[in-house]
Amino acid sequence: MKTGDALTKEAASELKHLSLAKPALDIGLFTNQADQLASFWQEAIGAEFDHILPISKTVRQHRHTFGHGVLKINQSKQRLKLSGPSGFGRILVAQDGVADAVAQQDPDGNLFQRTPMGDRGLKHWAIEVKVPSLDVFLRFYHQALGLTRAEEHPGAVAVGDSLIIAEIDPDLKAPEASHALEYLGLRYFTIQVFDVDAIHAQVTALGWQAPMPPTTLGSTARIAFVTDPAGNWIELSQRASLTGPLPID
After folding, report:
1. Dmax over Cα atoms in the chain, in whole Å?
2. pLDDT single digits (tens) 68-80
3. Which fold, 9-239?
4. Whose CA is closest to 16, among 233, 223, 168, 236?
5. Which pLDDT value is given to residue 68?
6. How many other β-carbons are positioned within 10 Å of the β-carbon of residue 75?
7. Domain boundaries in the chain?
C-alpha cells in the first residue's frame, strides 16, 4: 500500500493502537552551546536538569525534565551547520499564569511559544510538524503510528498530555534525503512505547520510511527511527525502566 492510498475499513480495524509507556513526548535539540541552551530553557519553562548521558564519542546529552517529558539537549563536539531542511515548526509550551501566547526564540533560534494552560487542550508541550494536508498528517500519525486524535484540537494527535500539531503547507515537498543530524536545532522527538517492533513493522508495512530498524542498546532501551511526511525523524523507544526486560536481537 502506498502512503497516499486510502485504507479499507477492514485494514483500518487491524491497525495497532499505540500503547504509550509514558504520557508525554521527549524533545531532541542539537547544539554547540549546551550551557547557554540549558540556562535558557531552565529559565523560560522551568526545565530541570537531570543528568548528562554520553551518546557517542562526539555527542553528550544534557537531559532535562519537564513534567513527564524530557528535553534532550545534545551537545556535539563537531561544528554543526547553522540551518538545514526541517519539517518542524514551533515548540508550544503550556504554562499556568500565561494569559496570552508569547513567542520567543532560544539561543540557537529554535522557535517556541508559551501558551495559556489548557488552550485547545494543551496541558504540557506540543510540536508543530509541516504536512501538505491534514489527511496526510492523519494517515501517518493516526493510522500508521496509531496515535489518538486530540479531542480539543482537530488538527492534532495526542501523546499523553503532549500534542503533535499539523502545520499545513500545501506546497511541501518530500525531502530528497533524510535530514542528517548535522544541523543546529530541533531534529527529532521521542515517543516511549511498549512494543517498538510492532509499531515499526506497522509503519513500514504502510509504506512509510524508517531510517533505523529496531536495535537494542544494552539493557537500557530498544529503539527505532521512522520519518514522517516531511522527513522529520521520530524515535520510538522501548525503555527497560518503563517497560521491563527488552527483547534480544
Report:
1. 51
2. 999 999 999 999 9
3. 2,3-Dihydroxybiphenyl 1,2-Dioxygenase; domain 1 (3.10.180)
4. 236
5. 95
6. 21
7. 9-239
Is 239 in contact with 21 (CB distance < 8 Å)?
yes
Cell of 17: 493502537
- Residue 240's alpha-carbon distances to 38, 102, 125, 218, in angstroms, are 27, 37, 24, 10
Place of cell 494569559: 99
Mean pLDDT by 10 residues, the chain (249 residues): 44 64 96 97 96 93 97 95 81 93 93 93 95 94 95 93 94 61 89 94 92 91 92 93 84
- The residue to which cell 515548526 is assigned: 89
pTM reported for the whole predicted model? 0.90
Residues whose CB falls within 8 Å of the CB of residue 152, separated by 6 or more in sequence, listed in order: 120, 121
What pLDDT is recorded for position 16? 63
pLDDT tens by residue, 184-198: 999 999 999 999 999
The β-bridge relationship of strands 48-54 and 102-105 is unpaired
Contacts 24+ apart (CB under 8 A), 117-120: 118/94, 119/94, 120/152, 120/153, 120/156
